[in-house]
Fold this protein.
Amino acid sequence: DTGVSQDPRHKITKRGQNVTFRCDPISEHNRLYWYRQTLGQGPEFLTYFQNEAQLEKSRLLSDRFSAERPKGSFSTLEIQRTEQGDSAMYLCASSLDRRRETFGSGTRLTVV
Amino acid sequence: GENVEQHPSTLSVQEGDSAVIKCTYSDSASNYFPWYKQELGKRPQLIIDIRSNVGEKKDQRIAVTLNKTAKHFSLHITETQPEDSAVYFCAASMGSGGYQKVTFGTGTKLQVIP
């Protein structure tokens, strides 16, 4: 599969623990996006990278959240001191310039 | 910021009938309107999109219309089939400073009854 890959697919963690998710975009895509999706809702934009530069962060992205894309290829999203409200599907997407985004299958986070 | 409203939230149609999903957006600067289909437990997949310089676009059984003046756009699925059953999301996006932020609607769960 040469699409967008996300790892892990599922993560169960205890409240207060830190978690890190990884996204590998389509290789030639220079733009990478993170979204959060809760049950019954549409994806909510979290942050966006163009190459290695993080160009926008949503107000949803509290100081417990941090995202990186160090070499302009894969990206990581870290959540520190997880809370039950962080339980959601975290989706990564990538695109080439301003063209259509391709989504990954997501990482489902459950905070217990 | 942009606000996208979508309705209905659920829609049941008989196989072979048409389905229409409507969305409105708030920011007149939005210029790109994609539609995504998401099956249960799977990723959103782009099914059709339209740019603000076009009023209508069709791809086989799927068509999208855009009314910029009224700031609304619609998805039309004709001759529905059971495999069309999924959640459909509209979205609006604007290019600004070289990037585009996509705002999604809340989704329409479409059920096609065989």
The CA atoms of residues 55 and 71 of chain B lie 12 Å apart. The interface with chain A takes residues 4, 6, 34, 36, 42-46, 49, 89, 91, 95, 97-107 of chain B (CB under 8 Å). Chain B has a mean pLDDT of 92. Chain B has no helices and eleven strands.
